[in-house]
Write a structure and sequence with these properties.
The complex is a heterodimer of chains A (about 625) and B (about 350).
Chain A lengths: L4 H26 L4 H30 L6 H20 L7 H48 L8 H21 L6 H15 L4 H33 L2 H126 L3 H13 L4 H7 L2 H49 L6 E3 L1 H12 L8 E7 L5 E3 L1 H20 L6 E10 L2 E8 L6 H4 L17 H11 L3 E6 L6 E8 L28
Parallel strand pairs in A: 2-4
Antiparallel strand pairs in A: 1-3, 4-5, 5-7, 6-7
Helix pairs in contact in A: 1-8, 2-3, 2-8, 3-4, 4-5, 4-7, 4-8, 5-6, 5-7, 6-7, 8-11, 9-11, 12-13, 13-15
Chain B lengths: L7 H8 L17 H20 L20 H11 L12 H4 L46 H10 L8 H9 L2 H10 L6 H13 L7 H6 L8 H12 L2 H4 L10 E3 L21 H4 L7 E3 L21 H13 L5 H12 L8
Antiparallel strand pairs in B: 1-2
Helix pairs in contact in B: 3-8, 5-8, 10-14, 13-14
Classes of the chains: A alpha+beta (about 625), B mainly alpha (about 350).
Chain lengths: ~625, ~350
């Protein structure tokens, strides 16, 4: 039969509890009445015994006349009563041994009995003493009355004799003779009888004597009887009974204590063994635990190692990501620059082409032909001019040529101016992009918004309406604004470029490009509205993301960086489209005043608060 | 001429002679009064000398008063207040001091005292002075302690007629009593403490320094010659058999009417005033009373349990007749009365 470990454990626990409980019980019972109480009670009993003896001695002293007053008797009685009460009180708390209680009550009863007897004794003794004391005197007086025996009547003589015998008998009785009572009574009777024959006053005297003699007799009897009763009162025996009972109790207690000690020994041995087994078990458990602990430690170490490796890997990956991001950022910047520069280069190209074509188609060829004609007719110039029809035409032709040449020159100058400005713009674009890398702030200048917009239009090549595109300008009441010119230009150029691309993607009809610029509620609002291919709904949220492009050769950097730039300046860039084929509207909002520069949310550019600077004149 | 009175000492010598042998010195029937007279005459000078000489106090039947034990002053003061507090009685007019007036020797000079509603008490009021030295209280000894006596009086319908709830309420509603009890006793105002307070006060009413006490302590000049003679007579006639001890009485019971039974004429009190018989029911205890103390007796007229003796002289002659069965010559009675007056202590504060 296999006992489960749990069951064993419960059994042991039960044994332990029983052991402890039994110890408690034994201890409590063994301590019920301590030994000191026993000795105190013995001392009390001894004192009671002594007092009792002293009391009886005092009685005898009073009887014998050694003490003439009863105060000692009273003191003994009082003290004895107190002690008996104390004895009864000392047993109150303990287990009620009825035998003991009865014995104590019997003792108290005996003491009370004795006290009553002693009272009787006192009363009788006083009377006895008085009468006894008076007896000789009474006898003397009788004698006096009878004339000292001189007139010796027979009766008187007899009376005198009887008197003396009674007196002597009484005195002897007083000294303790016990068996003269009958005689004394006879004598008294005889005396009475004899006195009857005397005269009245003499008789009175004799009667007085007789009364006292009888009193002596009576009280003597009483006193002796009471003394015997006092001696018979079993106070001493009762005290001894109590003593015996207490002794027996004490022996029982000693016996019990011995038993308890044995039980205690057994119980403690059992408990000790339990304790030892528990300790051994504990040691075993401890060993197991230590083993498990070390295993845990090893596993922990292994885990730590792995964690370290992973962390290292992660860190490497992170570094790679960071550098990739940096490169991407740089790439973004670079592509941004390229994009913006590319935009501007378009207009540069256009301007250069224009200048080139102008120059190529310049009217200098006409001038050369005219010069040839003149050279051919060099010797006969005046006849040429006078005679031939070509002559005056030539003059007119040269005059027109000069005008045209001037006009050409003006155009080309203007075009070269534009070219120069575009190149400047490229420079600033590059500089701006560089400022992103180095994060130095670009200049903020006060400018009229429509100048900005015009510049943007020109750069992007939409300054004038052409045969396929109608450009509509809608400028409201615009104050001067404090903006970063280059950035705004970038954005606008980007937007216009995108609009151009989207309209170009829908060929075959005349397109309309609307550029709005308005100031309202402290913000500058520039809108570029085209009627190109539009933006499908699902792309609306994605067009601002980095790397999104719908163009085949697009690199997707434009709108994202425009949005970032707008944010940096404290404004927003919005896009709206009703869907494919419905065109698109891009809105740039910029604050009119000094722009609170928002944090730049680039990946690897540290965020920094760049405060708005006061207007700086453009270089 | 010689009065033929032998001293008590001589009597003692008689009684301490060892048991007489079978053939007595005075053979029966042959004794003559003459031989007795010779013996008496022989011993008389001795006796006289002894009477005149100073007695060591310890062997005297009358003892000087012991010093009063020290009592707790707070409780004594409280007890004094309660002793004079009439609100403890049912009609609010009777206090302990009404019947035990400290200015009148601790009693009230009335045959019987007046309790609540003008009712007469059953017996003459004994003095409260030195009552602490009595072995019992009350004429028939039914109160074993001073406390028991106070309780019996408080509840007795003819004396203070109160109840414990009444008494405790009266005391509890008086803030000065409540605080006094709280100060004097740990458990405050309880029945036991009320009794204890009054008894503690009574224990201080022990009167010392009477002329007789001074005489007992050795001051020979404290008594005049007549008073000394009175003391000698007091002892010789046997008054000192019952009126003995430190309190000159008060430590035993005795029948009133030892030699001459108390005739109906003597019991002027109500029927049933039979003394200790009312406590024990024993026939032999009829007319047995506690022997009263004679200290300050000159102040506490009238005398006896029924107040039937108006003067000391009357009391002494009654005692002679009923207790001693003798008629004493006038000068002896006078001397004894003179002696009794020396038992009066100076006034208490």
């Amino acid at each position: 039969m296999k006992i489960s470990r749990n069951a064993v454990a419960w059994m042991l626990l039960a044994v332990a509890i029983v052991g402890v409980a039994s110890i408690g019980v034994l201890y409590a019972r063994a301590n019920a009445k301590t030994g000191t109480e026993y000795f105190e009670e013995l001392a009390l009993l001894r004192r009671i015994g002594q007092l009792d003896a002293q009391w009886e001695a005092d009685v005898l002293k009073a009887r014998s006349g050694m003490t003439l007053h009863f105060d000692p008797l009273r003191e003994s009685s009082d003290e004895l009563e107190v002690l008996v009460k104390a004895l009864q009180a000392s047993d109150e708390g303990a287990d009620h041994d009825t035998g003991l209680a009865d014995a104590q009550r019997a003792l108290a009863e005996a003491v009370r009995e004795k006290a009553a007897r002693v009272e009787e004794f006192k009363s009788s003794l006083a009377i006895l003493r008085n009468s006894l004391h008076y007896l000789p005197l009474a006898a003397e007086e009788v004698h006096k009355t009878l004339g000292y025996g001189l007139p010796a009547t027979d009766a008187a003589h007899r009376v005198e004799e009887q008197l003396s015998s009674v007196l002597v008998a009484s005195l002897l009785n007083a000294q303790g003779r016990r068996d003269g009572e009958a005689e004394t009574i006879e004598s008294i009777e005889a005396l009475r009888h004899d006195a009857a024959l005397l005269s009245a006053p003499q008789k009175a005297q004799v009667d007085l004597f007789t009364i006292h003699a009888e009193t002596v007799l009576r009280e003597q009897r009483t006193v002796n009887a009471v003394l015997d009763e006092i001696a018979a009162v079993p106070t001493a025996r009762r005290a001894e009974d109590i003593n015996a009972l207490l002794n027996r109790q004490q022996q029982q207690r000693v016996q019990q204590t011995r038993h308890m000690r044995a039980y205690l020994l057994v119980t403690s041995v059992v408990l000790a063994m339990l304790l030892l087994s528990a300790a051994w078990q504990l040691r075993r458990n401890h060993r197991v635990l230590a083993q498990l602990n070390s295993q845990l430690h090893e596993a922990n170490e292994l885990l730590e190692q792995r964690v370290r490796e992973r962390t290292q890997e992660l860190r490497d990956a992170q570094n790679e990501l960071v550098s990739t991001a940096r490169r991407a950022g740089m790439a973004e910047i670079a592509s941004n620059v390229l994009h913006n520069v590319g935009n501007i280069l378009n207009s540069v190209n256009v301007s250069a082409d224009l200048v080139a074509s102008r120059l190529r188609n310049s009217c200098t060829r006409g001038l050369a032909r005219a010069a040839d004609l003149l050279r051919a007719n060099e010797e006969e110039l005046p006849q040429f001019f006078a005679a031939s029809a070509k002559g005056p035409k030539l003059a007119r032709y040269v005059i027109e040529l000069s005008a045209t040449a001037q006009h050409e020159q003006a155009e080309m100058v203007a075009e070269l101016d534009a070219l120069r400005r575009s190149i400047d713009h490229i420079k600033t674009v590059v500089a701006t992009q560089q400022s992103y890398a180095t994060h130095s702030s670009s200049p903020v200048i006060r400018i009229h918004p429509h100048e900005l917009v015009e510049d943007a239009l020109r750069i992007s090549g939409h300054a004038v309406t052409s045969e396929w595109l109608e450009v509509v300008r809608d400028y409201g009441e615009l104050p001067q604004v404090l903006v970063d010119r280059d950035r705004v230009l970038q954005i606008l150029v980007n937007l216009l470029s995108n609009a151009r691309q989207s309209m170009k993607a829908v060929p075959g009809c005349r397109h309309r490009l609307v550029v709005q610029a308005q100031a309202d509620a402290g913000m500058l609002r520039v809108r570029v509205i085209d009627d190109g291919e539009g933006i499908p709904v699902e792309n609306l949220t994605r067009i601002f993301t980095h790397g999104f492009t719908t163009r085949k050769e697009g690199h997707g950097f434009g709108l994202h960086s425009c949005a970032l730039a707008a944010q940096q300046m404290g404004g927003t860039l919005e896009a709206h489209s009703d869907g494919p084929g419905a065109g698109a509207t891009f809105t740039l909002h910029l604050p009119l005043g000094p722009a609170p520069v928002a944090e730049f949310h680039g990946d690897d550019h540290p965020a920094a608060d760049v405060a708005a600077e006061p207007a700086v004149a453009a270089a | 001429m010689q009065s033929g009175v032998t001293s008590f000492d001589q009597q003692k010598q008689f009684m301490s002679v060892p048991r007489a042998p079978r053939s007595p010195r005075w053979p029966r029937g042959h004794t003559t009064l003459r031989s007795v007279r010779c013996v008496a005459a022989a011993l008389l000078p001795l006796a006289a000398a002894a009477a005149a000489a100073a007695q060591p106090a310890a062997t005297e039947p009358l003892q000087p008063i012991p010093a009063a034990t020290r009592q707790d002053p707070a409780r004594v003061a409280l007890g004094r207040r309660l002793f004079h507090e009439p609100r403890l009685s049912a009609d609010g007019k009777v206090s302990c001091a009404s019947c035990h007036d400290l200015a009148r020797g601790g009693a009230d000079n009335r045959t019987r005292s007046i309790g609540i509603h003008g009712r007469l008490t059953a017996r003459n009021a004994p003095t409260v002075l030195n009552a602490a030295l009595n072995f019992r209280q009350m004429w028939n000894g039914r109160a074993a302690t001073l406390e028991a006596q106070v309780e019996l009086v408080l509840l007795s319908p003819s004396e203070m007629g109160s109840t414990w709830p009444n008494v405790l309420t009266v005391l509890a509603t008086d803030p000065s009593y409540a605080s006094a009890f709280a100060a004097a006793y740990r458990d405050g105002l309880t029945k036991a403490n009320v009794l204890n307070a009054i008894s503690t006060f009574e224990r201080t009413l022990v009167t010392a320094d009477s002329p007789f006490d001074r005489y007992l302590r050795g001051d020979r000049a404290a008594l005049t010659d007549l008073e000394k003679l009175g003391y000698a007579r007091f002892k010789q006639y046997g008054c000192a058999s019952c009126h003995q001890g430190a309190n000159i009485g008060g430590n035993m019971f005795q029948r009133f009417g030892v030699m001459v039974p108390l005739a109906a004429a003597k019991t002027t009190g109500k029927p049933g005033d039979l003394g200790r018989f009312e406590v024990t029911g024993l026939d032999r205890d009829r007319h047995v009373y506690k022997v009263p103390s004679l200290r300050n007796v000159a102040l506490t007229a009238p005398y006896f349990h029924d107040g039937s003796a108006a003067t000391l002289e009357e009391a002494v002659s009654v005692m002679f007749r009923y207790q001693l069965g003798r008629v004493a010559p006038k000068q002896d009675e006078e001397a004894i009365v003179r002696f009794l007056r020396t038992l009066t202590a100076p006034r208490l504060e």
